Amino acid sequence: MPTTQSTSKTTTSKITTPRKSKTNAIKLLMDDHAKVKKLFKEFEKQCKNDDDAGKEEIAKQICEELTVHTQLEEEIFYPAAREAIDDDDLMNEALVEHGSAKELIAQIQSMKSYDPMFVAVVRVLGEYVNHHVEEEQNELFPKVEKTDIDLEELGAEIASRKDELTKK
Length: 168
Fold this sequence. Notes:
elongated, Four Helix Bundle (Hemerythrin (Met), subunit A), 168 residues, single chain, mainly alpha
C-alpha cells in the first residue's frame, strides 16, 4: 500500500505540499514571488500616500529582488527544467519575459520617482511579473514536479547562489 501511494504521488500534479521543504527549489522561487508581490502592493500604498521617497525605495527593492531572482532562475533553475521537461516553447517564453522585465528594471533604475513615467513603468513591470509568476506556478512548476529532478539539491544550489548574490 505505501508503495502505491508513493507512486501515485509522483504521477499527480498535486504533489506540491509533501515535497516542499525549506530547501525545495520551487518553494524558494515561490517565496521570492510572494515577496515581490508584497513589494508591489507596498508600492501602490506609497503611490496613494503620494510619498516620492517611499515609492523610490520600494521600487529599488523590487528591482533588486527581481534581478537576483531572474539570475537564479536563468543560471540554475531554467537549465535544469529545460532538460527535464523538454518544452522549449515554455522555457523560451520564460526567457523572453525575463528580458522584458530586465528592460523595465533598467528604465526604473534610471528614473526618479518624480519622473512622470516612473509609476507607469513600475506598474507595467508588476503586470509582467504577475503574468510570469502565474505561468511559472501553473505551468512550469507542476511540469518540473513530475520529473525526477532533485528539488532539494537544486534548492540548496539556489539558496547558496542567492547568498552570494545578496551579500553586500
